[in-house]
Amino acid sequence: MRKSTQLFFQITLRHWKIQELIELKKHALIDILIISICGAICGAKTWVDIEDFGKSKQEWFSTFLNLVNRIPSHDTFRRLFLLLNQNEFSKVFMDWVKDLREILN
After folding, report:
1. Domain containing 38: what range?
2. Which end of the chain has the smaller Cβ count within 10 Å, N or C?
3. How many domains does the chain have?
C-alpha cells in the first residue's frame, strides 16, 4: 500500500471517535467512505443519491465490505461528512487519487 493510501485511511480513521456522536455504531466508517466515494464517482449529487446508489449496488459492496446493517441512511452519510475535517480529508483524498492514477497509468 502506498504511503498516501495509508495516510488517507489513517487520517480518516482518526475520526473514529465521532462514532459516539452519531449513528455510526451500526456501520463501519470505511464502509461509509467507500460507498460515498463510489457513489460520487458514479454521479451521485446528494446524500439521498448516495444511499440509493449504495442500495442498488449492495450485493456488489457486500463482496468486500462488512455491511452487517445494510447500506447506511442518507442522514448517516450526511452526518459523517459534516463532522470530518473537510480540508484535511480533501487534501489526503486528492493525494490518494493521484497515487491511484499513477498506479493505473
Report:
1. 11-104
2. C
3. 1
**Residue at 80 is within a domain:** yes
CA distances 34 to 15, 86, Å, are 15, 16
Q: Which one-letter amino acid corresponds to residue 62?
A: S
Q: Specify the length of the chain in residues.
A: 105
Average pLDDT over every residue of 45-59: 98
DSSP 2-37: -HHHHHHHHHHHGGGGGGGTSGGGGS-HHHHHHHHH
Q: What phi, psi does 70 have (nearest 5°)?
A: 65, -160
**Residue from 56, 26, 22, 23 nearest 38 by CA:** 56
pLDDT above 70 coverage of the chain, percent: 76
Alpha-carbon separation of residue 42 from 1, 8, 38, 73, 103 (angstroms): 24, 21, 6, 18, 21
Single out the residue of 10, 15, 6 nearest to residue 81, CA to CA. Answer: 15
Q: Is residue 2 part of a domain?
A: no
